[in-house]
Structure formats: structure tokens, C-alpha cells
Design goal:
Blueprint (H helix, E strand, L loop, with lengths): L2 H24 L34 E7 L7 H4 L4 E6 L10 E4 L1 E2 L5 E4 L3 E4 L5 H12 L7 E6 L3 E6 L5 E4 L7 H7 L12 E6 L5 E6 L19 E4 L3 H33 L1
Length: about 270
Amino acid sequence: MSKALIKRLFLFAPVLFLSFSIISCSTTKKIKYFEDIPDSGQLKIVPTSAYMEPKIQVDDILTIIISTVDPAATQNINLGNVAVSGLLTSSMASANSQSVVSGYLVNKSGNVEMPILGEVHLLGLTTDEASKVIKEKASQFYKDASVIVRYANFKITVTGEVTKPSIYVMPNEKVTILDALSVAGDLTIYGKRDNILLLRENSDASKTPYRIDLTKSNIMSQPYYYLRQNDYIYVEPSQGKAAANDIQQTRSIAILSSIVTVVIVLISRINF
């Protein structure tokens, strides 16, 4: 082998090395959900965690609607679902838009202050139980009244490697981890499916962390499968994220190296 050929191979070595680096960095393994469930054949039944209705807490905002035969009779109560200070992102709006939450605020004593009915203690009740308590009190003023109580600020925070990270006000209180991720546009290609962090707020304001592995179907039987108000979900980025951030810089170096190599090769041809 001539010295000229050896020199040319030596000059092209950096280009080959950088090319392989780019290919290896841009290759990302896609991990599917529930890998332990077979695609076909012997499909298994997946047990689901029992749903526990959330309890009304201080600073919750409740939408309370009382209906009677005469709509005008309860108009003052229903109009009491006024805007409460504080902006939250609606699940029906874009990730960057905001809307004002309307409803009755549960005060520090655990009560809501309603026109005509006065103070009603709802702390620690489910929305179904709260409906019955309000209906009983409303029966003193109205005949055959029906009551609907719903959360106006059942919010979940989803951040990290998802398509639309934001704070979401969910349309109902029976929400799963899969529902929340779907509302946020699902994980990006760089999100870790096997190590999602869920922070849950306790009654004493402390936080309980959970680690969630979406590649396993047993998450459906775990206590964190059904979310609670103020749950915080963080999707950690994979190592491929850092590689993707550096890929442009790597490509630039490869292009520059190629140009330099071509120039050197042309010079070497002239010399040899």
C-alpha cells in the first residue's frame, strides 16, 4: 500500500468516526406501554385499583347547581358560582391559555357560604355526600329540589417530556394517570416510560412520591392509578434527549471536518 493511500485513509478517518457518532446519537429506542401484555393469543385480564372518591378540602372550588320546578327560585344560588381569583389552564384550551375558575370556595373552616342557605359544612365529604347535605338544607326552602356538586378546580399538573406540559383542570374527578398523560398529548419520544414521578399532596401539606413504570400493566392496580386533586406528574427525559440536543453541534463539526479533509486531500494529490 502506497504512502499516499495510507495518508488519504488516515485523513478520512475523522469523517467516518463522526458519521458513526451521528448515526448512533440519532437512534432512539421507542418503548411501548404495557410490554407484559402479549400482542395476541393469550391475553390476560388486568386487575384495576378500586376507585376512591376524593374528599373535599379547604380551598377547593365547587360548582353547586340547585334545580327546582321554578328555575327563577334558585337563580340567586346558581348565580353564586362566581369567578374565584386565581387562573388555571383549562383542559379544553391550549397549553398556554388561561381561564378563570368559577364556583363556591371552601373556606378555612370547611364551609361554603351560599345565598339563602347560608353556611354549609362540606369539608371531608365526597361530592355525592355534599349533594345530599345541600339537598337536605335546601329542602327547608324549596320543594323537590335536585342538587349537583362538582369540582371546578380538580387540577393536575403534567410537566417534563410530554407534548403539552401544563396545569389541567379535568372535566371530572375520576381521572387516571393515562387520562392525564393523554390530555397532555402523551409522552414525547424522549420521555422515560419506566420512571415517571408522581407527587401526591397529603392532608398535612407533605408530598408522597410514587415511581410509575408504564411498561408494566400492574400500574392499573396501584393506589396512584386514579389521580387526586393537585397531583403533580413529571416525565423524566431519557439519555437520548441530551444526545438530540448535541446532534446539531455534532453535524456542524462533521461538515467542517469534511471540508478540511477534502482540502487536505486535494493538497496531498498535488504533492503526490
